[in-house]
Amino acid sequence: MPIADYNTYCKMLENAFENNFAYPAINVTSEITANAALAAFQELKSDGIIQVSTGGGKFASGTAVGDMVLGAISIAEHIHRAAEKLDINVALHTDHCPPNAVDTFMIPLIEESERRVAEGKLPLYQSHMLDASGLPLEENLDLSVPIYERMAKIGQIIEIEAGVVGGEEDGAAGSDDTPAESLYTTPEDMVRVYERMGEVDGKYMFAATFGNVHGTYKPGAVKLRPKLLKEGQDAIKARFGDDAKFWLVFHGGSGSDKADIHETLDYGVIKMNVDTDCQYAFSRAIADHFFSNYDKVLMIDGEVGDKKKGYDPRVYLKAAEVAMADRVKEACEDLRCVGKTLAGAAVA
Ligand SMILES: [Zn+2]
After folding, report:
1. N or C: which end of the chain has fewer CB within 10 A?
2. How many whole angstroms from 86 Cα to the centroid of ligand 1?
3. Cα angle, residue 147 at apex, residues 162 and 232 outer, rounded to 5°
């Protein structure tokens, strides 16, 4: 299928909201990791979201170029073409863009999509996250709303965040000295987000924080309060009527308790970001290959190693792709999106 257009993407997200499931949003930094996500979605007949961060884009462009926009374009181009060969819907997204990277990452990518839409093509990316959660809420919204308006004109969805996600991911958001209360978005803030984002005729996703942390952590180190998400949904309904709702995003899905994940699905989470666990699955397979085959990978004691079974990068990178795809499949199962593809269904 071609990459999801605006109507398809909206229908995907609304279907997930109505039926209490969510899509994994898989961070990728190369063709190989993108292929792992695609393979998992295809095998499980699940639609899904693939996302690129500023650091991922820079990495993908290569050490000689080192351009986060160019890398994000290259990965997206690859996925546009590869997805055509599959029978599931995929949407492309960019992850955390802090305010100081808006002009150097997000806006150039929006411009690229504007050019494509002017030529009658789909936007390059279907959604972008603007993470101004480090700013006071009103400043966050003052920055986010005009960009949202611009994106909405070409059928793009914006994701914003209020409250800080703990931990660290590509330098995004929180840190060890993040005050504990800022890890939890208040219902009052959620009401304000709904009010301001309602100024634009478009669709958005909202990362409200409920104690979630990027990265993986030992059991008990993180106190998730999924009920906060329900309180936020209830608060906007009480204020703006029964039709009011948020499409919510769960950051820092790696290492989370399955019961907590399932609870969030009941409160309107429709996208969960999974990065760290996929990174580990990918690297674990490579470590396994190197430790188990070191005499094939290396030329030891005057021997020549083994090109075919040892050091041809395709051998271990393929194993890594398969291992990462397995972890993406686990995410699809956790999020209950297995078999839920809308590809083939009439999209109004
Ligand atoms: Zn995140």
Report:
1. C
2. 27
3. 25
